[in-house]
Amino acid sequence: xxxxxxxxxxxxxxxxxxxxxxxxxxxxxxxxxxxxxxxxxxxxxxxxxxxxxxxxxxxxxxxxxxxxxxxxxxxxxxxxxxxxxxxxxxxxxxxxxxxxxxxxxxxxxxxxxxxxxxxxxxxxxxxxxxxxxxxxxxxxxxxxxxxxxxxxxxxxxxxxxxxxxxxxxxxxxxxxxxxxxxxxxxxxxxxxxxxxxxxxxxxxxxxxxxxxxxxxxxxxxxxxxxxxxxxxxxxxxxxxxxxxxxxxxxxxxxxxxxxxxxxxxxxxxxx
Length: 271
Ligand code: DGL
Hints:
Helix 1 (12-21) packs across helix 11 (211-225) and helix 5 (98-108) packs across helix 7 (127-135). Helix content is 49%, strand content 16%. The chain contains 13 helices and 10 strands. Residues 6-8, 10, 36-39, 69-71, 119, 122, 150, 188-190 line the site of D-glutamic acid.
């Protein structure tokens, strides 16, 4: 199975696109709902929690794990790839969502001014900025933290009138910082659930970059370039779900994210 990890429900927006792009593969989704949100947690805590989750997915037979969480990708991916994987099993792989997203930016932006909205953790890590400066030094990025977005989504308030207040506030603020922004990256996998409200308050010429499509396409490309990993991924078209919180709670909200019924099993971390 391909392991897909997020602090909570957000990674389901990535899983959905992976299932659409690569329907034959088997997926094992893990949401650390009991400890979500990760967005305001320190570097060390996000790293510890993410490593525990990766190990749980490895223990269940995943050879490839996607961190479908920007916060975990920003704060834990590099350490896991460089320090932990060589000790755990150098043949396994852990990939994140930031690099594939940044790789797309020159293709979609004409002004070369990018806006990024994300959790405080992702913004304070400056992972997007560092990746962009390394790859496309002529491009500019304005990073803006939206601490209220994940709680709104996790509490099923994304469609409520109350959410409009925070969406307008954050969008107005980032557009005020750089009026030349023509592409807005939703740098948190929860944010697609707020996409219609974000669209409502964003100037019409500013494009929203869909991260799910990009990550799914990048995974397809990765698997075609790495047959040694691809041949270890089973292909029966199944998806299983794990959560560290109550499965009933997970099933209800996950069904809204995915638009179909979900049955999750509860696990405890660390195992
Ligand atoms: N969905 C996650 C992300 O992409 C994190 C949300 C959170 O736990 O704060 O950043």
